[in-house]
Queue: 4 jobs
Job 1
Amino acid sequence: MPHRLVHHQSATELQQARRWMLEHGEVPQGMVDEALSRSWQRSRHAGLSPVDLATEQPVCSAPDLRLALDRQHDFLAHARPVMEFVFDQMRGSGNLVVLSDSRGLLLHSLGDTDFMSRADRVSLRPGALWHEADRGTNAIGTALADQRPVVIHGAEHYLERNSFLTCSAAPVLTSAGRLQGVLDISGDQRAHHPHTFALVRSAARMIEDRLFHARHSRDQILRLHHLAEGLGAVGEGLVALSDDGWVVGANALAQQWLGLNESRIGAGTLDQLTGIQSRLMPPGKVMRLHTPGDRPLFGRMDPRQRPVLNLSGSAMRSSVAPTATTAPERPHEQDPRLQEALMRARRVQAQGIAVLVQGESGSGKEVFARALHAEGERAHKPFVAVNCAALPETLIEAELFGYVGGAFTGARREGSPGRIREAHGGTLFLDEIGDMPLALQARLLRVLQDKVVMPLGGSKPQPVDFVLVCATHHKLRDAIAAGTFREDLYYRINGLTVTLPALRERQDFEGLVFHMLDQLAQDMKRPPVQAIHPGLMAAMSSHHWPGNLRQLHSLLRTVCALLEPDEHTLDWHHLPEDMAQELKAARGAAPGTASPVTSSSATATPPTPAPVLADANLRRLSDQAIQQVIEATQGNMSEAARRLGISRNTLYRRLKQTGS
């Protein structure tokens, strides 16, 4: 990635240039380097005065900061460990490590106490806005403006009050080539160290790679390096490929080496974009590649990952050729919060640590547990699920712990091993653990502590080995306070808590609907649904869904049964009457007439305009209307796509086409 060279002009030269700018109203030619001159010019055009100390320093409100932190949850989750590592290398040197989003809003910071107090005077803290239009030339704002690493030292800052700072910043890009935010290291300009620039650039790449692996955990990964020995090490290029070989992501190094950019990612196969034929690369084998510009590169294709459960409530299909009753594979960009939760849970469960899954009824807690099991080392062992709320209190003890023959009236002669022993070697999933009777909580705690089970009526303990996943929709801390749940058991089952979002909160609603419809079509041996009326999709997207995934799946199953064999579009009249009325009432208007939302924008037909913006087909929306929705949602692309009744991928493709 190109960057501004780290060389500093003298304070005297900068003061002369600043004086000239104040007297003549323009940045003097040749007195400062070109990149700095352009930044100063942008700052001047933003109406900022370099010497006005009375100018209010822009800081967002506490609610706005909380909203931004929520939206940037995944970015923060992957950036924080890197920031802590960087800060540990610099601790005691009087520096501050700062993370901003793509608007220049500071999200998180770590620093030495003595310098943080000085930085606070210029609002270099979470919640402050450091875009160039707000603060003039500064490392964060200028890195955002130029989209490249930069150092802004001392008097190079446009505002004189910031001249005590020396700041090194590097942008963080997504695997799609879009700007995610900026990582910055700031300190006292008198203690500037040139290695700081290299450190912040390396740290930004580390964050990018963490984001890449989280986003593309199920894609085919091609690793690149100019040394064969460098594959799998720090500083490698990464390319993510779909099942059919399309480039769906790349880290910054791979983008640079292969000549990829945002407009090319997702626009073709690896062969089409780079000339590299991925189908000729056996997984695991290191090969010398012929690349654009004859850059010497070695590549290695990672082995294909084992298919895993999708958190929509059904298993992911393997890629098969489309038939009359099989839908073509449609990419489903899963909610990032689910991806993060699954990644964190996998890590701790690999160490034998218990996982507690929280979420509303029907939000997919058991499916999440099955996904954990399917991706773990015990995938070939039993997965045993027990719903503690569904078993009568008189039977749950025998069901869980087992019994010997004749232990109680009605017991089977041969006895029963119990569900805990059935899970030996695998995963035990205790659903609705909050409904387990107190007496049995004490017995379960003993099992978890001693790793043995005593069957009812037995005298010999039986050893057991399993990983534990529990789930509940209750707030267990409230249950502890009420005396209905043991505090010691809570700490035993709560090695890591993950909370699943309710269906109404998920950011992948449209992809989820089509995924369920594909599965239902396959189960019912009927042609797949290709499109959904946009008004219906918008109404479903904004519905409360108190029953969550369970309710949605039940509705779609009924709808598929009502479709005629030759029908491929889902419309209002296919819904049960009560559900159609409920959705229409929630939207406050009857559905308009519009062309259907399809699973692929390539197959969409020209629409008839609808009276409601969210019901309009994307192909007939003007650039101005799209921008209005994006502005109304404050740049939240997921919400904008939901209001437009389309997927985020479709919205991004439209923005690329229009150059927005």
Job 2
Amino acid sequence: MGARHFSPVAVIADAHFHDTSADFGFTGINVDGQQLTMRSWSDTRQSTRVFNESADALRAALDQVAARNIRHVVLLGDYTDDGQRATTETLRGLLQDHTHTHGTAFYALPGNHDIFGPQGRHHQKEFLGETGHSLSITSNPAVIDDGVAFSDAMYCEGYPSGLNPMAAFGYFRRPEYLHWETPFGTSDAAEDRVYTATSPDGSNVYRLMDASYLVEPEPGLWLLMIDANVFEPLDGQFERGEEAAFTDSTSGGWNAMLRSKRFILSWIADVSQRAKQQGKTLLAFSHYPVLDPFDGASGAEAVLFGETNVVRRTPVKAVEDALIAAGVTVHFSGHLHVEGVTRRGASGPNLTNVAVPSLVAFPPAFKIVHASMTEIAVETVEMSDLPVNDLISQGYGRESDIRGEQRDPAFTAGHYGDFLRQHKRALVRHRYFVKEWPAEIVAAIGNRPVPDVVSSLVVMDETIPVRFDGLADLPMFELIADWYCLRQGASLALSHIEPERLMLYRSLALRFGRAPGVHDGSLSSFLGIFFGALGLFLDRAEGGAQNLVLSMPTVGDVVPA
């Protein structure tokens, strides 16, 4: 008799749902007779995600789920734009409608954009008003002035209020679950799911909620849903529970879990032990990666740019050790909007982290897990072929015209994948160059052709030819944008970058690239490390695959102590 196979599980990460029909108390931009609650392009081009396209992308992903008759969907955190009251309520309705129509069960985890601390957070965002002019909307009545309007619907709730709209999606027990528990027992009451968090000097002590749970949706399949949002109390005097009294969870993740929520690891170890004893197939999920999703390929960033978001959010080796010791073998993560599979422990106990891309960043995709008692196969579903919403593009164009700016090529993109690649170009220009890159490097190479930039570099290997056939005028900026696309997309990026460019990039990496050692501040040193990283990104992309098969431990396997 063959091994039992379970119903497939779709894993959607970082949907960042924003409702372009939301009511935030103002009249949105009118495009062809439709009122749109649109975020501005000026904000979008500085964000690692797009906003207005998220609703269409999520609906398209759910259409794929329905077409494939998938019964279970994991929402791997950051399912909302920023946890706004109105946004979360609309998302609840969308998911409930899908459940009623197709019988789909959703299992949610909070991300750092869904809940911002024990008592929530005010938000102020830039939208496009009826004529296309920018308009700021805030949930904080204390900051209202002539250029800012108020909407209570912009506020993001904390724990447990922020979970309530999503209560039907795993956070609380449902009668159809075969098994459901938390690290604290079998009660699903919020007051029974709290732990103590203390500031370093011991002066501030809080009782905070943890939203982790274990659910068995069908016989033999356990989904371990880990709330890795960590809010660490700070020293000092604060208003009780205010956001400023805690570190932001965004860069904490599993590094902070080791400091503040180690009780979760004990629970994970117990769950893993029971899963093996009872013959359950255990899949672990959290918003944050437990292994470096770039698998070391982004190490050059710390040398070239200092402590970037990617550097700050990379889990330390102790996280790997702790998860392997707890018996976790496969874990799915989001957060960094990256495609990647990272493995540790070639012999003996091992751990694999499957990084799931976002629906609203390049490259857009989600995963489908096909699990059995002996192995899991992970399928990638790309969403790049989706059409671009012409109404949104028209809104962007009107905004640019009003601002006196040239219209971005993204506004005329032929499909969603092309739009997100163009957004990546805009992101390089308006965020990375401004916030991370040394100004003198940008001035020296940003607008020059690639052959001109590399002409003065010391050749690392004379035997490697660099041919610019058809690419003699390729701007260095284009190469830099593709560098970021390869960093984020790995194997999924290859089909979006022209083959002749990929050949050129490989030859440049081989000839000029070097390991990220000491950067002496010179242009040649910078480019050597930069091209070395390009080579690692290409290695990672070419060595990856859109489908993955992993063996699962059997009941007789030894459980780490």
Job 3
Amino acid sequence: MKLLINTLLLLAVTSIYAQNSLTGTVLDENSNSPLAYANVYFSQLEKGTISNEKGQFLLENLPSGMHTLVISIIGYETKSLVITLPTLDYLDIALSPSAIEMEDIIISTPFHKLQRDNVMKVEQQRISDLKAHGSINLADGITNIAGVESITTGLGIGKPVIRGLSSNRVLVYTQGIRLENQQFGSEHGLGINDAGIESVEVIKGPASLLYGSDALGGVLYLNPERFAQAHSNSGDVSANYVSNTSGYITNAGYKASSEHFKFLFRGSLTEHADYETKNYSVTNTRFREQDFKAGMGYQYKAFKTELRYNINHAKLGIPEGVGEQSNNRSPLLPYQDITNHIFSSKSSVFFNNSRLDISLGYIYNDRKEFEELHHEDENEEEDHEEEDEILEAALYMKLKTANYDIKYNLPKLGKVETIVGLQGMHQTNSNYGEELLIPDATTNDIGVLATSHIHFEKADVQLGARFDNRTLSIESQEKQFNSFNGAMGVKTNITNALVARLNLATGFRAPNLSELASDGTHEGTNRYEVGNIDLISERNFQTDLALEFQSEHLEVFANGFYNIINDYIFLSPSGSFIDGDPVFNYIQDDATLYGGEFGFHLHPHPLDWLHFESNFEMVIGKQNNRDYLPLIPANTLNNTIRLEFEKSWIKKGYAFIKLRSTFKQNKVNAFETATDGFNLLSAGFGGSFKILDNELLISISGTNLSNKRYINHLSRLKPDGIFNMGRNINVGVTYKL
């Protein structure tokens, strides 16, 4: 590995490719008038600029080869062009007016195309848009994406659910590397703060071809904020107030770039008291989170690299019922104390018609859980000793993960683009606490893949294959899991306005440490879990069909899926008890999930400022014995009316009203209870103002405005009959420097 990296650096340093430039003008297709302040961006190079008042742009110091240029501006359809450098051509780029939102390049799939050109269906949302619509944090925000929900423990802990699958069946990527932080349990949150994250992408369905084990159910891909454009700098400060929890969210950041060097940093502090329902506060759902992100990059001729670091520290209360009623923000016992360190590097070497990408990562997850001790207090000395004992974590685990991802984009052969890759991971889990949830272990992964995109006149085809090997060393035992997976997809334009996508893919997931080797009480779930060392890998085959109709003023989509999972792993009660806790065993059975998402977006002419949006999502999950799978989200219907406007005194103005209807969930596992349906009303408005020659963004939104008492089927507090959050008003202010 070290020899390979040194060779690549030598290639970069000794590269003799000439520095190229590109000039052009961005125009309105109808009037041929210039478009000022359009974004002109090379996605693979991560290098861009903005057109001037005459619509003109200039990009310099570009490496030779074929690169994708993306041009976008609000009110126009985003355009993607493949540019071969060097070129002496002057580009006149005409954009079509459109009321549809700007598109971005999809990063989570290997060929980095706009979604409309992508063979796989990928959902993408900007974090700023999710926040503007009332989302408090990342786990809450992703539930606005059709087909995505969250298993929650109050506001502080949330786990993504994609089409009914969660935990180790959904892989999370951040800073370009896979996130590893004890994600096997639903009581463990993401460990990621949305400050410094630009957008989120969701692959719904098996992505083992691209990412290996644990992507059996899908991928949540978090794109970090971009560096500043060359020869520019910017900063911002923001604050949010959350009325329900008397909480606040603050962050500040700054970034600057020269022609070759760039850097950024961002810090965030969040504190919340217990969340309130209509009748009571839910004791110990309070939490405090501190987050810091930094990055630096360098680009010269045919070589670019960047280093990023993120430290996230969270102190999260573990609720055990309704008790003390207060606005105190300091968690009570029991609580989690978690620190995540994420180091990543991403480098690219550009050859004439090919590219080598190398991503390296190291994640250090430090997890502690503190519990209340139960001793008889006899004297002050004993009390003092007990206080000292409380400082010792009952559960203390350290998870250290090093991973690598190397991909080579081969020279394009006619209409065929091909990528070959090598991915791997080395991981150690160590215990230091009195309690043992999962044992000490070492995991080693290695996978090789090849995938191609073929562009025909009337269709695009993508196909690929991959082989993986995972080795787990658990105390004196060693387990090996191998898997061969493939995927094939086709996208075709049935008409100019109607696009169809069909994707077939297999996936796999090796059993995790908890499933293989648990033998003890899991305090977060109040059950005694017994692992099964003889478990085999889960394997699935999923069929996805997506239809999209898009005209100037109407968009309609229908996505259907059918997912067959062999040897699905789940917990089943044995009927016995240990130390008063029910014993649950990990067993396997085949399972099937099916359903989809359907919706439309209407922006009627000539009222392009008015938007009607609606989407419906459903998923049904069953075991082979016809029993329903647990923790399957209820069917949900979202209806939104949104207004967009600009005046002399306000820019980027918007207002919305939304009704989220969640239906009764009575298709439940034998060890669950049915959950009633509910309706939640939300509304908000915001915009941008000019203050002291700088931009001030203000947003005000309210969720659950009717203060409805309800319980979400995916709430981990549901067994105790505890309601979800009541009415909340969120006020946000961002000032750009």
Job 4
Amino acid sequence: MGRTLARAVAALLVLFVGSLAFNAASGQSRWPGPLDFVRVHPWLVLVLLIPLSLIGLWQAPPRSRTQGPPVPTTYGLPPRNTDFTGRDATLREMRQRLTSANDVAMLVVHGMGGVGKTQLAVEYAYRHLSKYRFVAFVNAEHPDLVASQFVSLAGELGLTEVNSDQAAPRVYGMLRDRRPWLIIFDNGEKPGTLTHALPSGDLASNGHVIVTTRVSGWPGSAGVIDLDVFTRRESVELLVRRVPGMTAAVADRIAEQLGDLPLALEQAAGYMGYNHTAPEEYLTLLTSQLEDVIARGEPTDRPTVVASLWQLSVRRLESQQPQAVRLLELCALLAPEPIPLDLFTGNPDVLDVAAPDPLTWDTTVGALAGLSLARRGNASLVVHRLVQAAVRAAMPDEVHTGTRARLCRALLAAVPHDIHGDPDARPRWQQLLPHVIAVTKGDPPAECAAETAVLLRLAAEFLLQLGDYSVALPLCERALAIDESLDGREAEVGFDLITLAQIHRDLDAPETARRLTERALRLHESCLPADSPVIATDLATLARTLCLLGEHTAALPLAERALRIDEAAHGPDDPYVSFDLVALATIHFDLGDYATAVPLISRALRIREARYAPDHLYIGYALIFKARALHALNDPTAAELAQRGAQILHTRLGRTHPKTEDALALVDRLR
């Protein structure tokens, strides 16, 4: 507006002076229009116009202001990543935190390697470049080299002959005239290593400091943002945008394999782009050769690949806390799920050393969390799947074999073996099952073949209890193959066979179940006492299988014998007795003798309700069975029992499970 006023006044002055000159030359006594006022009162008009012109000229901006804000000076700032994805909420949070302080504001971005801390800081700098007059990027990975970078910074600011001790305070002093400013310290270590380089006191003001780090423990005076992996939406967005032919479904599965780690996703996109690998083919490679795939990326000037991200941290641990590296190696062979710490504290031999004292153990676990190699919970550790893969890839074969053997022994000691009779077996197995499957994957070393077979069979038994036959079946088949390859494992082969038979029975393959059960019974009768509860399990399983084949007459004495053995071995109220009662009740039910079946089922239900949680599957099965028998007797209480049982199965197995569907159909019939 000032410039407009100045121009208007200047135009009027030119017109005034020009009019005077014209009249003086022409001798006219009359001027046209409004200029007649100028002829009558020329000096009054002139007195009014001069101060107005001066005011307009004073308000007009200087020429330099018309050219926009000056371009900020940058030092060492990496090129902007044109493929930067997501993190919008985090970037907004960073800006809000940094600008809310009146003086120097410091923000620490903390997270594991490859999570995108550096990219986030660089993207922040570019998004807000116009808000700063000076932006510097300092590589802080090696603290001893930070001072030399400040010497270069001083030269950038026009300071010469500055030694390394004077560089930082001199730089911050110069920045008083470059406010606001931003300095990024990338990959900093513990706060103490950067003390000499961070601003303090009245050295500078109106500046921002961002530190990216893998190390926890920064002071409360520095705002900390814990940067996690991408959300699945961000992962899919990156892959779909970067890779031609990538579908959201395949991107989702690749992101799952890579644990949504940003650098791994970038590397995957680069690999597929450079090698023209179809997304489906890359997914197959990831599934079968994860350790090899993460060691390869797009051939570029940037040598960093995912497999090398954590080498520095591991080397540091090896020299300072080697026991933490042993713990990391153990975790690398487990699943990328919460690992209960009592798996190690409850089995001191798993660490291959004497049980550490509580303080040593706490600092060992804390070292992994402190370097962002693991995330620590109240009683668990979680190690990212790509950290695990990188550690596995670096482990010598003999270390890998020994570590796996120790884990097999530790898991075998930690999992409940009495899956059917132990009421607390389910929650513990749900916690440990992913780790059992991870450790038993592939051919077992000779040192732990027997333990591997037992773990596989027990896992199959647990999954059978949950009705997850598709996963239980191959696990049990592997257990049987391992046990059959070893000497002196007749009883264990029988255990595998009976579990396999139960799976096939529930899969509606009674002939296969019968063959497996009869073989198990023969093996156990050859190596175990006649009154062994193991034989009772074989007998009850065979009786229920024969019922499916319509051979009730042959099944009845088997079920009765099983019940006698278990009552003598365990007592009348043991959960195993309830299985024999159900087998016996099944025979009478199929024979149409509902009056005999109901008391047997009722007794089995009472035993289970006394030993298991109210929503246990075994209670649900018994409720449904009793409802069927009561319905056959026209008992109106059947509907309520069916409803309760169906609710348990729906909760535990899901709406689409065949057993749930049968139970819900029964409920509909009884309404």
